[in-house]
Amino acid sequence: MLKRIIVGVIAAALAITVIIFRDTPAMPIVLAILACIATYEIEKCVQIKNKAIEVVSLVFSAVVPLYYTYADVLAEAGFNPPVTAVVALYTLLLFILMLVNYEHTKFEDVAAVLVASLFVPWAFSTLAMLSAIDKRFPEEFDGYHGLFFILFALFCALITDTFAYFTGKFLGKHKLTKISPKKTVEGAVGGVIGGILSSVILFAVFDTYFFTVHSIGYLEIVILSTVLSIIGMCGDLTASVVKRNFGVKDFGKLFPGHGGVMDRCDSVLFVSTALYALILLTRTVF
Length: 286
Fold this sequence. Notes:
Blueprint: H1 2-20, H2 26-45, H3 51-69, H4 71-76, H5 83-96, H6 107-131, H7 133-136, H8 143-171, H9 185-209, H10 218-245, H11 261-284
């Protein structure tokens, strides 16, 4: 238990440090490293044996967060490749690499690698894109909104999980799902309530003392935090299903007592992806 707490504190300190230096190269570099490690953990979980596919996918997963962080700079320099074309060529390359060690490479292997090396690094990239949301929508957000949205995503994922754990431990009576027998309906409800309350408090602080542009209100925060808290719990359960499918307890062992990067970031990745997508949809479609 002591080791678990110490590792958790160290990981939290590192996360806070990265957030503080979010406007420096530190953030995209850390995101690239985390994306590469998380992709590697998933590929080891599903037992990818084709080394060529593994190497190419790991390089690709590390490049994605760097690209999305500096996409505007690259575009100004004349480098702005269409993302769909790049993804299409990358997919073709992975299928061609099936020919290397084809006897031990299944279609499911390539499908798993595609999901891992496309979704995971893009999900990590959304943290950088949330950080720079004021550049995407300068009329609706100011520089402090980037920090707020990162913290908002973390609150909806991590505080929801914490409230769910303690509520379930002391009040839980009804099982939520067979996927994770220890999770309860009471814990899930407590987690969502905790996510909403913490998010509202966070928003109140930023809206009162930091925001110069007031484009969002309390109702939107309540709705968003409710949806994101539920999505965060779904992310945790989804990761559990994947691990159960391949008979492993944890994706990795990087953090003693906590598992690997994917074990710690599964709900955060779901939440940050959903939050960024919802911001884009509400600001560009509706």
